[in-house]
Automatic annotation (TrEMBL):
Gene: DRC7
Pfam families: CEPT76_peptidase, DRC7_C, MORN_DRC7
Gene Ontology terms describing biological process: flagellated sperm motility
Domain Dynein regulatory complex subunit 7 MORN stretches: 366-629
Protein name according to UniProt: Dynein regulatory complex subunit 7
Length: 792
């Protein structure tokens, strides 16, 4: 105990020196705890005087502290705990009133404490009892950042027009009376009216000019302008203390923005009080340096005055020397007895347990949308899947304070099949930039454009490692297209395509039916170390309109010039259909070191044919903008249409299987027994006739099914032969696209033919077995068994 007394004396001496320094600066220091300690022992008369003074103090409690009214909430449906207080809650309110009177007496210069505001039913409730810790079944709420973001989405701050004045209701306009005296006739001059109109227009123009100048002046002095309400506003926020759940240091959370701030931040000027669901603490430290010098040790009664004594609170931080000095067991026992005598447990919370349905948790904002207005900016939020295009957030920045001139727009998306994440729209330049996450069908990463119309300027960047062709970047204009590659096996690194003017066609108006003609294709290749430089192509140019192909090879290290070769590309047949033979004038070459095999026509012919195939593959291929679709989790049974269709299909299959099983029990002799007279008993001859008719009918059905399969097989075979004949006749003039379509058709046709052939063979194998099985059933049928004994 002596060590504690020495510690207290040292702190008091330090506070006196600090107060002396502040007194020299002219600052006023309030030290209620020191005054309370230095007072002499109070007599009975002094206690009676103090009690009288405390009873005379009236607490200024606002009449309406809650924004809820009877018009917004039906209080009759609320639980009984909302409409009244228990005896323990009444006792707690009395303790809070006593504590508030003592605080006002000791600290008259500080604002009244926020202890027991009115709830929805206008019943005073202690602030700590409004908190009810609840564990929610959503993992997103286990961390402070996602939990704060979830709460901030539900809160909407509506500021008053004047923070220091209440809202003034406008006067109601009196409706015009039915019977009234007519106004006198207007005898003013039209010329004077026109002159007055011109004068008003000039005045208006002058006012607009002055308004623009005033806005410019305000922009200049806006940064230097001081806030008249600085330090007068009162705000509540969340304090997270260090220690538990591996929190390294204490920090603040703004509930409206979900942003975290350090306790050293200049935005927080001071703290009046703290509370949780267990206790209430009043800050007794000086906030002259904002919250930077505050010590958040709630177990220190010198710095934090607590309301309830017996509740759990953070222990006082002690050094090792102080802990060694606490060895007096008697004093500890006495302190424990005093605490037991003065302890008071916090009543249970009067609010209901929070229940958040999955739909409400996913909706987040009220009605799924929230708008936050900032200075020269507006933030809009939507719940996931609320917009068909996956839009969840939009930030719009403006140029003026009235928010009429849009400067730029940023939009964030979620659950998009094309993996679009962010869209940036610059209104000043008209440039749109789309950013995609990995997973786009074409591995698109960034898309910059001004218009989505075809044949407009655009730049596309790709995830080259996710693409087979290694495309890194594509730049398109109305006349050209440039592509950059990386990491290709053929060492292609650059491709430039030039387009000509589109030929006008009256019957075809779309860009797809009338594509732009390609004039020139330029391709550049990186050095392939496995090939000689004279055979490794560095640049390849296809002059489509001139029917020429130019090649430039890589230059050797010991040479200053590179080999070149030019081919005159002609059609393979002339106008009469005769095949054209390769001639020496169709290839012009310049070789640094000529070789024998390169001079042969066969080598040149094979090179030209290979270049023709490469030219077909180098054609421009562009994709259209697909419809915006959203990705849905397989566990989302409400929105997953594929899962829903699969479930319905499974239910339909089970229903059909059930009907099929029931159909197996149908009477296969019923159609034939219905032809017999109902009143007569069946004879042997009639039984034989029914059996024969049933077997013949089943046999005919088997034959019809076989004929149907055979007819479909022959039809598919004939169509495939016709297609093959068409291909043989037009093989020379077909394009790459036509060849791909032909090969795809052949593959599908062969698949159908094989299936039909297998079905036909299987039917031929099973048909006799089915016939014999039916015949055996007829012999064992209880209605025919008596007449069939002779034949068994």
């Amino acid at each position: 105990m002596e060590v504690l007394k020495e510690k207290v004396e040292e702190e008091e001496e330090a506070e006196r020196e600090e107060a002396a320094v502040r007194a020299e600066r002219g600052e006023k220091v309030v030290r209620p705890m020191e005054v309370r300690r230095e007072e002499a022992p109070m007599t009975q008369e002094m206690l009676r005087d103090l009690e009288k003074k405390l009873s005379d103090i009236e607490m200024a409690i606002p009449e309406k502290l809650s924004t809820f009214t009877k018009d917004t909430i039906d209080t009759s449906k609320l639980p009984l705990s909302y409409q009244s207080n228990t005896l323990k809650e009444e006792h707690l309110l009395q303790v809070a009133d006593s504590f508030s009177r003592q605080y006002s007496h000791l600290c008259p210069d500080r604002v009244p404490l926020f202890l027991h505001p009115l709830n929805e039913c206008e019943v005073p409730k202690f602030v700590s009892t409004t908190i009810r810790p609840t564990l929610m079944p959503y993992p997103e709420l286990y961390n402070w950042d996602s939990c704060a973001q979830f709460v901030s989405d539900f809160l909407s701050m509506v500021p008053l027009p004047d923070p220091l004045k209440p809202v003034v209701q406008e006067e109601e306009k009196v409706p015009p009376k039915k019977y009234a005296i007519k106004p006198p006739r207007d005898l003013t001059s039209r010329f004077q009216q026109e002159q007055e109109t011109k004068k008003q227009e000039e005045i208006k123009a002058e006012e607009e000019r002055q308004l623009r100048e005033e806005e410019e002046r305000l922009l200049d002095v806006e940064k230097a302008k001081t806030d008249p309400l600085h330090g007068l506003r009162v705000h509540s926020w969340v304090l997270v203390l260090s220690g538990k759940r591996e929190v390294p240091e204490s920090f603040f959370i703004d509930p409206f923005t979900a942003r975290s701030y350090s306790t050293q931040d200049d935005h927080f000027l001071g703290i009046e009080s703290l509370w949780n669901h267990k206790n209430y603490w009043v800050n007794m430290q000086d906030c002259w340096n904002c919250c930077k010098d505050l010590v958040f040790d709630l177990g220190d009664p010198v710095r934090w005055e607590y309301l309830l004594l017996g509740t759990e609170k953070s222990h006082l931080s002690l050094t090792e020397e102080e802990e060694d000095g606490l060895n007096d067991d008697d004093d500890v026992e006495n302190l424990g007895k005093e605490d037991e005598d003065k302890s008071f447990d916090m009543p249970p919370s009067w609010v209901e347990q929070i229940e958040i349905s999955p739909e409400a948790f996913e909706t987040r904002c009220p009605n799924g949308k929230k708008v936050i207005q900032y200075k020269r900016a507006k933030l809009e939020k939507w719940a996931p899947y609320l917009n068909s295009n996956g839009l969840v957030c939009r930030l719009t920045t403006y140029e003026d304070l009235e928010c009429t001139k849009t400067l730029e727009i940023k939009e964030w998306f979620q659950n998009r099949e094309d993996m679009l994440e962010l869209k940036h729209i610059d209104k000043s330049t008209g440039l749109n930039v789309d950013y995609f996450k990995p997973g786009h069908p074409q591995a698109l990463r960034v898309h910059s454009y001004k218009s989505m119309q075809p044949e407009t300027d655009r730049i596309m960047e790709f995830y080259d490692r996710a693409r087979v062709d290694g495309l890194v970047k594509r730049e398109e204009t109305s006349k050209t297209m440039t592509e950059y590659y990386r990491g290709r096996s053929d060492f292609l690194s650059y491709r430039h395509v030039s387009f000509g003017d589109r030929v006008k066609k009256l019957s075809l108006n779309s860009a797809e039916s009338n594509p732009r003609p390609i004039v020139k294709i330029t391709e550049r290749f990186a050095r392939n170390p496995e090939q000689p430089a004279d055979e490794d192509v560095a640049e390849r140019v296809f002059l489509i309109s001139e029917e020429r192909i130019q090649l430039r090879y890589h230059c050797r290290d010991d040479h200053i010039t590179a080999s070149k070769r030019e081919f005159l590309r002609r059609s393979e047949v002339d106008h009469k259909g005769n095949k054209i033979v390769m001639t020496p004038d169709m290839c012009i070459s310049f070789e640094v070191e000529p070789m024998e095999h390169t001079k042969k026509l066969l080598y040149q012919y094979e090179a030209m044919m290979k270049l023709k195939n490469e030219e077909k593959l180098s054609r421009h291929q562009a994709w259209e903008e697909e419809e915006h679709r959203l990705t849905i989790s397989i566990y989302d049974t409400k929105r997953n249409e594929k899962s829903k269709e699969y479930r319905e299909a499974m239910e339909r299959v089970m229903h059909e299987e059930h009907l099929r099983q029931g159909g197996g029990q149908l009477d296969y002799l019923a159609p034939f027994l219905a032809q017999l007279p109902p009143s007569e008993k069946m004879t042997r001859w009639q039984a034989m006739r029914v059996k024969d008719e049933c077997l013949s009918d089943f046999k005919q059905r088997l034959i019809d099914k076989a004929n149907l399969i055979q007819a479909r097989f022959e039809k598919e075979t004939q169509e495939l032969q016709k297609k093959q004949q068409w291909y043989q006749e037009n093989q020379v003039t077909l394009t790459v696209k036509d060849e791909d379509l032909y090969l795809s058709y052949c593959s599908q046709a062969m698949f159908r033919i094989r299936i039909l052939e297998q079905r036909l063979n299987r039917h031929k194998e099973l048909a006799p077995l089915k016939y014999l099985a039916l015949e055996e059933k007829l012999y064992k049928d209880p209605r025919l068994v008596e007449f069939m004994k002779v034949f068994v």
